[in-house]
Amino acid sequence: MDYDRIFDFIVELDKLKGVYRKSYLSDGSRNENSAEHSWHLTIAVLMLHKEIDDEIDLLKTLKMSLVHDICEIGAGDISVFDEARDDIQPDEKEYLTELCGRFPGTFTDELLTLWEEYEAQQSCESRWVKVFDRLLPFCMNLITKGRSWQEQGVIRDQVLAIHEPIRKQAPEMFKWMEKKSAEAVARGWLKE
């Protein structure tokens, strides 16, 4: 076993802690980083997987939750509300391909496969990871009184549109989000 190579790979992945997102921690003290988001997402999947109507491969879903944003080490994080979001995928893939080339055999083959599956959104597991990936920032906006929404100038129609994957995969959850977003508008946290 090449412990030096494993060490280098682990150190590379540690860089995800330095990628900051638009979402805030629940106490509003700072923006969350992508590693914290991935951990939080994985916990949400673990906590709620029995509530999911579909049969999912739990281990695969947990792995996908943990690795789906590793690409941001090389490409950075772009808000889902930013028009540039659609243009970032080639940079993400380029970084992951380069990472896998530097560290072959250290989980990188599976990492790239999981990321590609997540991006394609063809499997049940990938769609559920997307649901929770979108749900968590929504929840953090509710707890921080729409702080990130306000800073980005986001309106309710944008919030509902970006959560279309939730409407398709988890309609009851989306109905709850519609209600909560209407409440956010009424409280002045989100513009109509």
Question: Keyphrases for this structure?
Answer:
192 residues, Hypothetical protein af1432, two-stranded antiparallel ribbon, globular
The named CATH superfamily: Hypothetical protein af1432
Spans where pLDDT lies below 50 across 5 or more residues? none
Secondary-structure element string: HEEHHHHHHHHHH
How would you sum up the global shape? globular
Structure description:
The protein is mainly alpha-helical and 192 residues long. It has a single domain, classed as Hypothetical protein af1432 (Orthogonal Bundle). 64% of the residues lie in helices and 4% in strands. It contains 11 helices and 2 strands. It has a two-stranded antiparallel ribbon with strand order 1-2. Strand 1 and strand 2 form a beta hairpin. The longest helix has 20 residues. The chain is globular, with a radius of gyration of 17 Å. 30% of the residues are buried. The mean pLDDT is 93.
Question: Summarize this, please?
Answer:
Helix content is 64%, strand content 4%.
Walk me through the topology.
Blueprint: H1 3-14, E1 20-24, E2 31-33, H2 34-48, H3 58-67, H4 72-75, H5 89-102, H6 108-120, H7 124-143, H8 147-152, H9 156-162, H10 164-169, H11 171-186
Antiparallel strand pairs: 1-2
Helix pairs in contact: 2-3, 2-7, 3-6, 3-7, 5-6, 6-7
